[in-house]
Write a structure and sequence with these properties.
Layout: E1 6-9, H1 13-25, E2 29-35, H2 42-46, E3 49-54, H3 65-75, E4 79-81, H4 91-99, E5 103-104, H5 109-116, H6 118-127, E6 135-136, H7 143-153, E7 157-161, E8 170-173, H8 179-194, E9 199-203, E10 209-217, E11 223-235, E12 238-244, H9 251-267, E13 272-280, E14 286-292, H10 299-306, H11 310-318, E15 335-342, E16 344-345, E17 351-352, E18 355-356, E19 359-361, E20 369-373, E21 380-381, E22 388-396, H12 399-411, E23 414-416, H13 422-430, H14 432-435, H15 443-451, H16 460-475, E24 496-502, E25 510-518, E26 521-526, E27 529-537, E28 543-548, E29 551-560, E30 563-568, E31 571-577, E32 594-595, E33 600-605, E34 612-613, E35 618-624, E36 627-632, E37 637-642, E38 649-650, E39 655-661
Parallel strand pairs: 1-2, 1-4, 2-3, 4-5
Antiparallel strand pairs: 6-9, 7-8, 7-9, 10-11, 10-13, 11-12, 12-15, 13-14, 15-22, 16-17, 18-21, 19-23, 20-22, 24-25, 24-31, 25-26, 26-27, 27-28, 28-29, 29-30, 30-31, 32-39, 33-35, 33-38, 34-37, 35-36, 37-39
Helix pairs in contact: 4-5, 12-13
The structure holds adenosine-5'-diphosphate.
Length: 662
């Protein structure tokens, strides 16, 4: 790889760390770039050199191509890997890198441009004879024309941002009446995310699968495909579970899709790693959706079933070497599944969460388990970047065994400090529909009720373990007691502690627990029951070895401030310790009020001051983390006053409008 000796990664987080691992294995030196928010980030700590490129917002740092190129020059890097997101599909950046005499690890700018707009790409594919979803992808964006096209295609339709990606700027209109509002919303999101509000319209297919082909081309003109990935399990049109190969894939369809993808790549003079995305309908017909001219988030499942390192392929191809393997040398071995661990709240429409990861543990990596992450315990998930915490990838000989591995790996994943989607992913992994590979892009919609179980009070053993951990932790002199000394301990007398636990979130009920200190343990009184317990808590790693009514159990008990996280029997439980001096608890409850769930910008007010509203009626639209969130009336009532105007920035936790329930 003589042309490349040092590579700068124009990215952050898990992908920056992942690229560095391969670069280092190949003997290359690594250069990181970082914003103010990332000075202590894992990717900076991993790199041989790191260059500061600006403030936290991406448009002032990770999106500034000139600064990144200057950083590469200053650090002596001879190549730039863009990762995914940020500048990875920016043709002007690819050109500027080449013009600066550096190697861009990705396709030529012309190929990025050809596939850059979904509309242009579709026109190109249409010419090449690749089947498209019925729709409109013309340049004329007149609203009346778009509405007429939608009617011609037939409802429901999907409106997509031409410049789109990551499910942003994508809205379904079920009926003609919904079309104008859906169009306006898609255009707003597209403008905010991509600076370009052009859209295309497609027939919204009822139950398609998302199946994509990994292609790889070299500068000698050869191109292969590394089979397919099924990425049907999505929320907000964004992938959460990806697997390879696609379950039940007909080898003849695979070959046809592979050939279509290779033809698409060759048609645009492609070089490097790319993905051609298709919708696969239940009758096995498939339609081109778009081509992503970069490495995908889900590339590890392809690596797992082919035993190849795609970043190594990228580096070799960028250095001018031929593809490492021919099509005939590539074969599928076993089955791999990836899940994306996100800081988000599935119960609140997958609202992204921010905060500090006070505790973080992943399953041990090995031949069956791989963890790609860019964060460590103590790091923050901020409003500035994607809320992904890690990717968990499992591999085994067949799908059933891989699913079993996945369930185990999720059970061993511990995240505290913010709401993560681990229980939601565990519910998917255990769902009969998933086991039966009943996959299509509405999987989460269809099984949502099973995946988000109705709220249940914490089980007796969970309350008991949380309480036991607390009293044991207070025995440790190092553990300051947030609510004053534990009764009787100092005098060595038998004593009773009165604890009250509350479930986080709106409407969480309080669970009192009485702890009676005994010579050989504790007697817990909760919900009218007495439970005899004893145990030890290791303060270093939070391991709680307990005996509950004679049964030995192990759990991990992690406390931060007033919040206790219990990881037990494969589940994650969060409980808040109520302040016994503050009545119910000291925290302002959001119940019955319209509270900003995160810092953001007001982009639409849907009611006027004094309006009477009904429960569930949309009131205000916020944009946060590049997505729109519509806040709805918590009950029937009246909007007494509007406290912010369109365009205002709002902080987390502020009351957005005055509201009086009827
Ligand atoms: P993005 O580039 O924003 O990821 P895509 O065009 O790749 O957008 O589409 C994302 C997802 O949206 C697809 O994986 C699929 O689940 C869904 N989708 C896209 N087009 C259609 C369609 N015509 N009918 C039904 N679902 C679709």
């Amino acid at each position: 790889m003589s042309r490349i000796t040092s590579v700068l990664i124009a990215n952050r987080g898990e992908i920056a760390c992942r690229v560095m691992r391969t670069a280092r294995r190949l003997g290359l030196s690594t250069v990181a770039v970082y914003s103010d928010a990332d000075a202590d980030a894992m990717h900076v700590a991993m790199a041989d050199r790191a260059v500061h490129i600006g403030p936290a917002p991406a448009r002032e740092s990770y999106l500034l191509g000139d600064r990144i190129i200057a950083a590469a020059k200053a650090a002596g890097a001879d190549a730039i890997h863009p990762g995914y997101g940020f500048l990875s599909e920016n043709a002007a950046f690819a050109e500027a890198v080449a013009a600066a005499g550096l190697v861009f690890i990705g396709p030529p700018a012309s190929a990025i441009r050809a596939m850059g707009g979904k509309s242009e790409a579709k026109a190109l594919m249409e010419q090449a004879g690749v089947p498209l979803v019925p729709g409109y992808h013309g340049a004329d964006q007149d609203e009346a024309l778009l509405a007429a096209e939608a009617a011609r295609i037939g409802f429901p339709v999907l409106i997509k941002a031409s410049a789109g990606g990551g499910g942003k700027g994508m809205k379904v209109a079920e009926t003609a009446a919904e079309f104008p509002a859906a169009l306006a919303s898609a255009k707003r999101e597209a403008k905010a995310s991509f600076g370009d509000d052009r859209v295309l319209i497609e027939k919204y297919l009822a139950r398609p699968r998302h199946v994509e082909i990994q292609v790889f081309a070299d500068s000698q003109g050869d191109c292969v495909y590394l089979f397919e990935r099924d990425c049907s399990i999505q929320r907000r049109h964004q992938k959460v579970v990806e697997e390879a190969p696609a379950p039940g894939m007909d080898p003849a369809i695979r070959a046809r899709m592979g050939a279509a993808a290779v033809a698409a790549a060759l048609a645009i003079g492609y070089v490097g790693a790319g993905t051609v995305e298709f919708l696969l309908d239940s009758d096995n017909s498939f339609y081109f959706m778009e081509m992503n001219t970069r490495l995908q988030v889900e590339h590890p499942v392809t690596e797992a079933i082919t035993s190849q390192d795609l970043v190594e392929w990228q580096l070799r191809v960028a250095a001018g070497e031929p593809l490492p393997l021919t099509q005939e040398q590539l074969a599928i071995n076993g089955h791999a599944i990836e899940v994306r661990l996100y800081a988000e709240d599935p119960a609140k429409g997958f609202l992204p969460q921010t905060g500090r990861l006070s505790h973080l543990r992943f399953p041990e990596a090995g031949p069956h388990v791989r963890v790609d992450t860019g964060v460590r315990a103590g790091d923050a998930i901020s409003i500035h970047y994607d809320p992904m915490i890690a990717k968990l990838i499992v591999w085994d000989r067949d799908r059933a065994s891989a699913v079993q591995r996945l369930r185990r790996a999720l059970a061993e994943t511990e995240i505290a400090g913010l709401n993560a989607n681990v229980p939601f992913l565990s519910a998917i992994a255990a769902h009969p529909g998933f086991l039966a590979a009943d996959l299509d892009t509405r999987f989460i919609e269809r099984y949502g009720d099973d995946l988000l179980p109705p709220h249940a009070a914490p089980a007796a053993d969970v309350l008991a373990l949380a309480s036991l951990g607390l009293v044991l932790s207070r025995r440790e002199p190092a553990n300051a007691d947030p609510w004053g000394a534990v009764g009787g301990l100092a005098l060595n007398l038998p004593a009773v502690d009165r604890l009250a636990w509350r479930e986080p979130g709106e409407g969480g009920t309080t669970h009192p627990v009485e702890v009676e200190w005994q010579r050989d343990g504790f007697l817990l009184k909760q919900d009218g029951r007495s439970i005899k317990t004893s145990g030890q808590l290791d303060p270093a790693d939070g391991i709680l070895r307990a005996t509950l009514e004679g049964t030995r159990v192990n759990a991990r008990w992690v406390c931060q401030g007033r919040e206790v996280n219990l990881f037990y029997a494969g589940g994650t439980y969060r409980l808040l310790l109520s302040d016994p001096h503050a009545g119910r608890d000291g925290e302002a409850s959001g119940h019955g009020r319209l509270i900003s769930p995160m810092p953001g910008k007001v982009i639409a007010l849907l009611v006027t001051e004094g309006a009477d509203v009904t429960k569930g009626q949309p009131i205000i639209v916020l944009e946060a983390m590049k997505m729109e969130h519509t806040l709805k009336a918590p009950a029937d009532g009246k909007v007494t006053d509007l406290r912010y105007q369109v365009g205002d920035q709002v902080a987390e936790g502020v009351e957005l409008v005055g509201f009086e329930a009827a």
